[in-house]
Predict the 3D structure of the following.
Amino acid sequence: MNWRFGLILLAILSGSTGCFVRDVRWSPIRPPRHSPGRTYVIETTGYCPCGDCCGWERNWLFRPVISSGPNRGKPKAVGVTASGARAKKGTLAADTSIFPFGTVMYIPGYGYGRVEDRGSGIKGYRVDLFFQSHRDAAEWGRVKKKVTVWKNGAK
Ligand SMILES: [Zn+2]
């Protein structure tokens, strides 16, 4: 084992980097069969589970709490989405009045994702794409994409 691998292993085991989701179960996301989907132009942004992206900070006990708004100071379940699923690559946050939970999307450059989360700032034709690290989320930035949408993928 070389030192580089050791460092990566250490980073995974310690899991204390904040911008890390511990559960990385991989589940394939695929659109429903025999359905071409519909194309929308959607503004996409990247996010990760860190406090900057998800509005939380650590209190004096080092526990994550919500950092602003009416629920300020209340405990925050980091990495858990509004639908209760664990956030992972492929987790999308959208305006669920337009794209309900379970909607499958194909975003060029990102791949397949499924709407499992929402946010107060996510309204209209826009979607937040989950990334494991803040650097990857920041690199994605904010881009308009031609997104293929399968709403009938919704559960
Ligand atoms: Zn972040």
Q: What stands out?
A: The CA atoms of residues 13 and 22 lie 9 Å apart. Residues 19, 48, 50, 52-53, 134, 137 surround zinc ion (CB under 6 Å).
